[in-house]
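[Q] Does anyone have a clean structure-token version of this?
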Amino acid sequence: YANVLTSRPDPSVALITLNRPKALNALNAAHFNDIYDALLEADRDDAVGAMVLTGSDKAFAAGADIKEMKDKEFADAYKNNFLSNWELISKLRKPIIAAVSGYALGGGCELALMCDIILASPTAKFSQPEISIGVIPGGGGTQRLTRLVGKSRAMELMLTGRMFSAYEAEKWGMVSRVVGEGEGEVVKEAVEMAKVIASKGQISVQACKEAINASFELPLAEGLHFEKRLFHSMFATKDQKEGMNAFVEKRKPNFTHS
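[A] Here you go.
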């Protein structure tokens, strides 16, 4: 990939690092395609149980690439459904942890919001500043951020474009937690979390992610029914038998993801 680095800090964990340092990891079409393709490759790899997406210490991603967008016309944007491919990341089945340091602005903030868990460095700074350049968030910001922080706060943040800190994001429930200080600490913590997730049965992990995501879309009664059916389906897996027998026998389970 030209715009991302991929590695395996653990055989079960895929680490994807945004790599456009001169542009503070700004997201143009080629960059986003590399991010998605790298995540998709990991999602399809049976050895991978969880993924970590990160940038640099200075910037997770400092927004979408304005130079690429500034001359775009409505007809082109509408006809070609501009940014619609961004939704593809949220449809991946395995958990994605965003490890955010530095700036996560505009499209960078939206990219983090597409992930399943966000861990933040104390240096992380978030914003949806699109209002200041004559547009609105187009990669999910008005929808995902509002669901996490509430209407009034979302209105304030997106109508003013103001930047907010990792600690504010944690207090509002947007960020799972702020990790300790130190260069690379957030990636280290994210990899450790990914290893824990990857140690579980992949079928139950993916089903749990599916059920949690459905809770944002379904009325409570339908969501409870959906959850119950997924729960029932786990009893058709070898991992359920292994997990429960291991618990009774007081030993560590050996999941086969089957």
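[Q] Thanks! Anything notable?
[A] The first strand starts at residue 4 and ends at 10.
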